[in-house]
Amino acid sequence: MKKPTVVSLIKKELQTQLFSPADRERLNRLARIDEIEPDPEKPPRLPAETVACLTSWGSPRFTEEILTAAPDLKLVVYAAGSVRPVVSEALWKRGIVVTSASAAIAIGVAEHTLGLMLSTLKRVCRFNELLHQGGWYHQEERVKIREIYGLTVGVVGAGHAGRHFIRLLKNFEVRILLYDPYLDPAEAVRLGVEPAASLEALIPQVDVLSLHAPALPSTRDLINRENLKLFKDGALLINTARGALIDETALYEELLTGRLTACLDVRYPEPPVPEPPLWKLPNVILTPHIAGGVTDNMKRLGKYALRELENFFSGRPPVYPVTERDLERMA
């Protein structure tokens, strides 16, 4: 029996990061995999018999020209986060199913968020610096440690990353508050968290605030000069979502007071501009957008893509479909 045709529009170097040898074998058993190296100067010519496409970062947008060549295309699997770079009006009109690996990426984001929270509360970076200079006990620093027991953690955004972070927090004795304007209060109860009516109601209550909202016009400068003043003294702000959620100039000015600590994995723009010089402040922990997937976690994205194809060919529904309407509230 002739195998169905799946076209990979993923860069070869990225393919090796996404798919383990074992998963690559499973793909080849499942379908005939045609590989087309993406070229930004030249749209790919899909074989007419193409039924599904594998895509990821760097894959082309599915324009009318590309789609016309493949009338049997039914599925676009996006082994990355936001599908915006590949979708088009022409694709939606054809009713082609689109799936995203954002849920797979979210696991790494949540894990990184938890790591930043625990290590910062425990002042790991500061103690590492001090111990490299000599000495051991450093009582003057030990008294500044905060531990997670009994703290109140606020989560902003109940998407995949926010929900997985909540699941991780369930391993600790903490109070969890959640703000998401799209969340049904009954769903918050099912998640085992306390819903907050607004961000302004949430902020004054929390010891830790973790951002997991999408970057949309409505979320630009979600954390700003006005609500930064609402944070408790000693609070910790974590952003592993998108840099545009924070007014960095306002954050810098607030951090200069020493009242708050911030952990930032994302900036706006990236790479960040020299001003404001957040990197000079001792109460800022910075990582270079490494939360979602860099090495080992990339294989989880490949596993997700394989699962979506297996579901498609067996007649099962997609695990993480994305519709045109979903984009209204997705990054």
TrEMBL record:
Keyword annotations from UniProtKB, A to Z: NAD, Oxidoreductase
Gene3D superfamilies per the UniProt record, alphabetical: NAD(P)-binding Rossmann-like Domain (3.40.50.720)
Keyword RNA-binding among record annotations: no
Coiled coil spans: none
All residue ranges annotated as the D-isomer specific 2-hydroxyacid dehydrogenase NAD-binding domain in the record: 114-291
Entry-linked Pfam families: 2-Hacid_dh, 2-Hacid_dh_C
PROSITE patterns: D_2_HYDROXYACID_DH_3
Keyword match Nucleotide-binding: no
GO cellular component: cytosol
Domain D-isomer specific 2-hydroxyacid dehydrogenase catalytic span(s) in chain numbering: 49-322
InterPro entries: D-isomer_2-hydroxyacid_DH, D-isomer_2_OHA_DH_cat_dom, D-isomer_DH_CS, D-isomer_DH_NAD-bd, NAD(P)-bd_dom_sf
GO MF annotations, alphabetized: glyoxylate reductase (NADPH) activity; hydroxypyruvate reductase (NADH) activity; NAD binding
Homology family: Belongs to the D-isomer specific 2-hydroxyacid dehydrogenase family.
Protein name as catalogued: Glycerate dehydrogenase
